[in-house]
Amino acid sequence: MSLMAARRAQRLALLEEGESVPIRFAVVGVQKAATSTLYAMLVQHPQVVDGPQKELRFFIEDHDWDHPDYSTYRRPVLGPARLAGDATPVYLFWPQALERMHAYHPGMPLMATFRDPVERAFSQWAMQRNRRTDFPDLPEAIERYAADALPDRLSETAGGPDRRQSLFTRGLYGAQVERGLAVFPRRQWLFLEFRELLSDHVAALDRATDHLGIERFTTYPKLVQRSATSTTNPGTAPTVAALEAVVQRYADDLALFEKLTEIDTSAWPTRRVLSGELAIEDFHARLCGKLGLTV
Fold first, then answer.
1. What is the residue-wise DSSP string for 224-292?
2. Which residue ranges make up each domain of the chain?
3. pLDDT 10s per residue in the chain (295 long)?
4. Closest CA to 31 of 133, 137, 176
């Protein structure tokens, strides 16, 4: 049994044993952008329920969505806290997930963190390569997946492969946020930026607790970065030209993203390459060096 499956089994067993509360907020995106770090800090708040299974994944599972049973979309109460959340970063990317969530609770407060889309994609590649030695080398992954379009529908039964191959489409933040804002109004969204979250987690937590309508922390948890990118990865580096093509893929979408979220992306390396402030060769060397790839 995988660790995720074990945590799910533990949560479901606890639901049968005692008191529980329904999910009332969600961290919906994006993968490899400190969502685990954010959630791990939030559950240290005295009003927020902790417990097993960070990612409940309820809205990407194969339920009867015409008549869904929400009886397991809850968290067991293990102390005085009563506000329960779900941190499943694939929700923003997954078609129909937010619509299903809206049907469950139209007033759900949502949070999403974002980072440079190329850095995020390369970090996801490193995670997948660490989990599966047969996952393609980065040059092959770029060739196979970088031009994929944002999907309109995905099968829940094929969730694993779809998630693994979505390295680059998950970085189309503007299109995903636009889709999300068509489901939930802007006032229910909190958009956070990866570097700001890590550099000033106290300010980020204040924004998060304000968004949830709960008291601010009196004692702030320490910042512990979860699921950091591996710096030793087997395989060869992509060419500079391949990286340039990936960067150009995000040009229009980044402009839309910044307009919709008001997040300043000017410090993101992808944006700096697009604006001419950063040479693509320097970005290439930085990425490959961080991942430990053979150039």
1. ---SPPPS---SBPPPHHHHHHHHHHTHHHHHHHHHHH----TTSHHHHHHHTSS-HHHHHHHHHHHHT
2. 3-228
3. 788 889 999 999 989 988 999 999 999 999 999 999 999 999 999 999 998 999 999 999 999 999 999 999 999 998 899 999 999 999 999 999 999 999 999 999 999 999 999 999 999 999 888 888 889 999 999 999 999 999 888 877 644 555 668 999 999 999 999 999 999 999 999 999 999 999 999 999 999 999 999 999 999 999 987 777 777 787 889 999 999 999 999 999 999 999 999 999 999 999 999 999 999 999 999 999 999 887 7
4. 176
According to CATH, the topology of domain 3-228 is: Rossmann fold (3.40.50)
Q: Which residue has the tokens 């970063």?
A: 89
* Cα–Cα distance, 118 to 100 (Å, whole number): 29
DSSP string covering 176-193: HHHHHHTTS-GGGEEEEE
